Amino acid sequence: MRGGHLGGNWRTGVAIPAWCVVLLAFASALAPRVRAAAGAGSASQPKAIRVAMDDNYPPFVFTDENGILQGILIDEWHLWQEKTGVPVELDALNWSQALQRMKAGNFDVIDTIFDTADREKFLEFTPAYQPINTRIFFRSDIAGITDLDSLKGFPVGVKDGDYALDLLKQHGVSHLLVYPDYKSIIDAARQRRINIFVMDDPPAIYYLNKEGLDAQFRRSEPVFRGAFHRAVLKGNTTLLKLVQSGFDRITPDERKAIEERWYGTSIASVPYLSYIAYAAGAGLLVIVFLFGWNRSLRHIVAKRTAALSESEARYRLLFENNPAPMLIYERASLRLLASNEAFLRHYGYTREEVLAMRVADLHPDSERERVLTIVPQLRGYTHTGEWHHRRRDGSYIAVYSNSHDIQFDGQDARMAVFTDITERKRAEQQLQTLTGWLRSILDNAAYGIVASAPDGTIQMLNPAAERMLGYSAAELVNRQKPTLWHDPVEVADRARALSAELKATVEPGFRTFIATADRNIIREMEWSYIRKDGSRFPVMLTTSALRDALGQITGYIGIFRDVEEQRRLEQQLLRTQRTESVGQLASGIAHDLNNILLPMLMAPALLREQLSDPDSIAIVDTIEVNARRGAEILQQLLTFARGSDARKETLRVEPIVFDMVKIARETFPKNIEVRCGFSEGLRPISANATQLHQILLNLCVNARDAMPAGGILELRVDELALGAQEAARIPYGKPGIFLVLSVADTGSGIPHSHLERIFDPFFTTKKPGEGTGLGLSTVLGIVRSHDGFIKVESERGKGSCFRVFIPVIEARAEAPAPASTVATSSGLGELVLLVDDEENVLFVMRRALEKGGYRALLARDGAEALEVFKRNAAEIRLVVTDVLMPVMDGPALVAAIRASGSRVPILAVSGFLDSPETQRQIQANVDAFISKPFSTVELLAATQTLIKKGRSTPG
């Protein structure tokens, strides 16, 4: 943009009459005196001033085709320079830059500026010198535009730095298309890239008329009534007074002359003077040349006729060659009188076909009534509207019509100009459809979606985001930024990490979320969000930038998904894998541990007969009890880790409950009172004693943890008959007679929201390290394996009660015979083959059999056992073999013995069967199986039973 001292580069761009040259010469002679007088009046007067103004505000300031500044303000500042004697350097530039550079102190004065509260913070203003109205300009076919609030949802053009930009933002208009100057806005409107813009009246009217768009646009009532001021930086009062006093010296006549130069003068008086002169001359000619009046009259008529013919020819030429389809129709009958070539070409009719038609013939049946009602009433004004027209091939097009009155061949008619807007309507429909799809996607998306302005202000969020965050759209849109639900510490940490990664400073805050989007890097990042209620949840967030056709960022879109459940499942998977690892470990050591426990469990029975000291016998009893307890714990571990079926037996629960009560009273805090109760006549159940003990232990420990301040823990056993209706009220309940084990406490109770999840694996409300979340899950699994179910009752602040239902059985449980009463000399010297790879196991098993009256042969693996069996097959009455052994395992040995045709009884023993296939082979070919570790009594009992069976079996 050009600028310069007014005395140098300034040009008006028009020829100067001779009398103006004389006046300028006189003014030049007078100028030194004027400047001297002005200088005498102000000793502190500046040597020169720099003035900034808008470069594109016709007719006040704009440039000609050579880039030279011109306009009303240029002439006024030229006159100001003459009045004050102070040289003026004008700089017209982009308005946003003008404001910024004025604020930075690059200029002394800024012109064409509105007085606003923000600008008053750094500027002082002269009084207003030119009122300016700001309006909404919109295409004539758009309805419903009344004020700034009605613009929401429309793309709106506005000039960068203009006060209108602030107004639109204040009214929540977010879809703004910002242009560097007014001309760029009008160019975009001419190219139909925008249909609505907000602009001051003077430049809008100037450019719309210049581009021939004035008929296509309408304008609203003023949305802002402002005025032009001149301003200086805050505190420069002396300069402000000089500026104002200089313009005060411009006389009204001088100002009027400048305005008339750019606005023009009325031409109404000129024709009248001409006509008077013509009339006077004609009268004189009539008087002087009366004799030639007839000749003159004929000449004038001929001339007028020729002019009229020439005018009509020009009109028809313009009509015929207009690129827009045009029609002329008689207003009363609506009969078509004429059409131009563009109409015939676009619609496909011949001229004869057009002349035979009426206006309504062009319209579909759905519009005929409206046409016949509206069109005949059009008179005296221009009418615009949208219609549908039928072309000759039967297709319909959407048109924009602009019609006005005309006289055609002496007939009262109207001329209509049509614009085919079919493609535009189709595009609008597609856009509307696409908008509907997008709205449906936004409304139904499972992911949260948030749109923000470039500064981070939230413009939109979808229902999923509202649900996840707990905020409504009304609370956030145009009010908040996404930083609202972020942890400031996490944001600061992420900003530091991004600064190092991108090698650029990333400020904590909204810039942290968009740092990668600004660089066109699409990345999903995990964040911790904070809901409105303060709770937190993890999300995966992807942020991307929205850009216009020029690549400028117009906003940002953030899409996030709640991964709280995913993280929970991942943790559960890790725990499950950890549990599986425990199971694999347990499986790996089960065989060895059982072989270690077996001698410990069998030896007490052998030692007890050799001891008479009560203390020694007590020690042996303790070894046996603990060895059995170790075996039960190992079996329980295998049951949990690998899902092994626990062996059940008919038993009474009273001893198990008493044992649990004893443990609780001895180990629980003393402020917990432990109570116990039983109904009379309880029947036995089929259960695994160790697993029942595990049920009670888990329930009692949970009850203890629910009473940190103390309370009452009550264990009770009852027998209850459930009918179908009562059973239906209990999850997984069924009718029948059940033994009910109840564990009740007076603790804090369980929240209702947790009741449905308390049996989920790994669900726990305890702190990390205080619980695994497996206790109740294990309890439920054991209860269901016993064909039972659980009922839970809880009330916050009053406590909880777990009732375990296990079916009773009719048989009475018989107490096992004491070890000392089992016969130890039931054998008659029968020969038993013992096969095991553990020397300790072979040793204690041989001693047990010999004490029982049997003889034993030993083998350390299956291959050795097979050789021993072949040599002594006739004498061997029983084979006792381990399952897992080196060289040849138990199943292979059993298969070889059976393949030889022998029907000798085989007893398989093992601490753990490693696969279903091994179990199948053992069950198919052996006569009995007992799990390691087992007692001397169990081994002798099984031996005695199988040898008896062998005697009764032929072969």
Tell me what the structure shows.
- The protein has 955 residues and is α+β, with helices and mostly antiparallel strands.
- It has seven domains: 3-113 and 235-263, Periplasmic binding protein-like II (D-Maltodextrin-Binding Protein, domain 2, 3-Layer(aba) Sandwich), CATH 3.40.190.10; 133-220, Periplasmic binding protein-like II (D-Maltodextrin-Binding Protein, domain 2), CATH 3.40.190.10; 275-318; 322-422, PAS domain (Beta-Lactamase, 2-Layer Sandwich), CATH 3.30.450; 445-562, Beta-Lactamase, CATH 3.30.450; 653-807, Heat Shock Protein 90; 823-952, 3-Layer(aba) Sandwich (Rossmann fold).
- The strands form eight sheets. Strands 1, 2, 5, 6, 7, 8, 11, 12 and 13 form a nine-stranded mixed sheet that branches. It has a five-stranded antiparallel sheet with strand order 15-14-18-17-16, sandwiched between helices.
- A hairpin with a 5-residue loop joins strand 16 and strand 17 (396-408).
- Helix 19 packs antiparallel against helix 20 and helix 21 (654-667) runs parallel beside helix 22 (689-705).
- The longest helix is centred in the middle third of the chain and has 45 residues, at 564-608.
- The protein is elongated and about 170 Å long.
- The N and C termini lie far apart (121 Å).
Detail the topology: elements first, then pairings.
Elements: E1 3-5, H1 18-41, E2 49-54, E3 62-63, E4 69-70, H2 72-84, E5 88-93, H3 95-103, E6 109-113, E7 123-125, E8 130-139, E9 156-159, H4 163-170, E10 176-179, H5 182-190, E11 196-200, H6 201-210, E12 217-219, E13 224-233, H7 237-248, H8 252-263, H9 269-288, H10 293-321, E14 326-330, E15 336-339, H11 341-347, H12 351-355, H13 365-374, E16 383-390, E17 396-408, E18 411-420, H14 422-444, E19 448-452, E20 458-461, H15 463-469, H16 473-476, H17 488-502, H18 510-518, E21 524-530, E22 536-547, E23 553-562, H19 564-608, H20 614-642, E24 649-651, H21 654-667, E25 672-678, E26 685-687, H22 689-705, E27 711-722, H23 724-728, E28 736-745, H24 775-785, E29 789-795, E30 799-807, E31 831-835, H25 839-851, E32 855-859, H26 862-872, E33 876-882, H27 890-899, E34 906-910, H28 916-925, E35 928-931, H29 936-952
Parallel strand pairs: 2-5, 2-6, 9-10, 25-27, 31-32, 31-33, 33-34, 34-35
Antiparallel strand pairs: 1-5, 3-4, 6-13, 7-13, 8-11, 8-12, 8-13, 14-15, 14-18, 16-17, 17-18, 19-20, 19-23, 21-22, 22-23, 24-26, 27-28, 28-30, 29-30
Helix pairs in contact: 2-7, 17-18, 19-20, 19-25, 21-22, 22-24, 26-27, 27-28
